[in-house]
Automatic annotation (TrEMBL):
This is Permease. Keywords: Cell membrane, Membrane, Transmembrane, Transmembrane helix. It is found in: Cell membrane. Residues 288-412 form the ABC3 transporter permease C-terminal domain. Belongs to the ABC-4 integral membrane protein family. LolC/E subfamily. The lineage of its organism: Bacteria, Pseudomonadati, Pseudomonadota, Betaproteobacteria, Nitrosomonadales. It comes from the Bacteria.
Amino acid sequence: MNNMFKLALRGLMRNRRRSLVTLLAIALGFSAIALFAGYTHNVYDGLARLSIHGEMIGHLTVSKRGMRKEGKLDPERYLLTSKEVETITRLLKDEPHVEMVAPRLALSGLVSNGRASTIFIAEGIEPAAMEHMQKNELTEQEKKTGLYRNTKKQLDPARPEVVELSEGLIEMLHLSPGGQAAMLVNTLTGQANALDITVGHSFNTGNAGSNDKFAFVSLALARSLLDAEGRADRLTVLLDDVNQTAAMRDRLLAKLRGAGFDVEVQTWQDLSDFYNQVHGMFDMIFGFIFSIVLTVVVMSVANSMGMTVVERTREIGTLRAIGLKRSGVVRLFTTESMLLSLIGCIVGLFITLGVRWGINMANISYVPPNSASAVPLLVDMDTGRVLFTFVLMGVVGTLAAYLPARRAAKKDIIDALGHV
């Protein structure tokens, strides 16, 4: 085996230029796949944190069965009563991995500055719950970029009349922090109800479609506007580990239905259509790029091994003449291809680390489609995909030499020795 590796290394060194070109093709292909995998991993992770903590969807959402559809036409029927909220909250907090349970209440209506009015969509949530849900919204690297200065939302527990309005909504109504406005909504029974509000801090939703109409209000103010004392349309559950989401959904659903509650439990993936669409799109792009790079690598290795067979025909004849079997010739060429592929992947890994460091330190940003603000261009290290690519490219690169090696092994010794 040691002799086989020595012969394989000598074979690679025999034509350094061709070996170097093939090695660079493998290294750059590996690096391209690893960098794109790291970028998509960062996008997935960022969208997940934006959904769970930024939009405050949480990991799980508990609501009465039918609330998302029929509840829009008959909200009073599908709201959780104060007793149900209290009982379900107590049952959920007894479970492992449950970090927080927060009652929520959605509302919409008109907001006015006294001269002009526009529509708004708001979420009612307790101030303490809002603060807790945003603690893991950004990574340290994202905080350093300074691009998320206006995403933080904060309600004052001592002043329930203070609301958080999105930047576009404040700009449209020419309001400013500390200014006065009024909110008009329909109560659960269909009557009009209006309350004066005080504008708190502004925030950027990150989405161009909602940045001119979204608001966060205290749960007490939402209940007062809707005349829904003690009630909630759903309970948001925050876990201590996102990987427990699916398991806890099944566990909590079984427990609540066993306790007599006709509810449904949805994950953040169920509620975040944008995340699912982006995930599907990037998976397709990654598969397309991966297939192209893999084809280039296979063709490069096969071409290199094919040329090597032609140039080393007399050497193959000599090896056969001194006793090397046909299977030995196949092993020799596949070992050369394996070494070339592995060395290329290792070089590609170092290229990936260098380029990734440069991108992350360059503080590059861009504005994605339908976004209201810039986001940083960051690349993670997707260890799973990197290892998969390393193994697959090594295996495929080795197999790409099989046909040329088999063809070389079939040559007669006399013909091979006389080859010119």
